[in-house]
């Protein structure tokens, strides 16, 4: 791939160019979000290129789904860490919000 067949990265650039009119039509506040989608797609370009997909748009969609899963995992871990930290503070302060039934 590369000399005769376009690489996945080449195909991704082509897709981004094809969708440029939509980007321009978006409100300015959403354009950075649009750009971030393609940035996230590029984060997994090595794996997508290795898979050598016939349809690079499908590989982009799977890459975006994977990027969202990674972000969800990060946010869940952060939320869990805050919840654990918050409960530890309540225990130290002796805050009894459990309803007084021993739980």
TrEMBL record:
<dbReference type="InterPro" id="IPR058469">
    <property type="entry name" value="DUF8156"/>
</dbReference>
<protein>
    <recommendedName>
        <fullName>DUF8156 domain-containing protein</fullName>
    </recommendedName>
</protein>
<feature type="region of interest" description="Disordered">
    <location>
        <begin position="81"/>
        <end position="103"/>
    </location>
</feature>
<feature type="domain" description="DUF8156">
    <location>
        <begin position="1"/>
        <end position="89"/>
    </location>
</feature>
<dbReference type="Pfam" id="PF26485">
    <property type="entry name" value="DUF8156"/>
</dbReference>
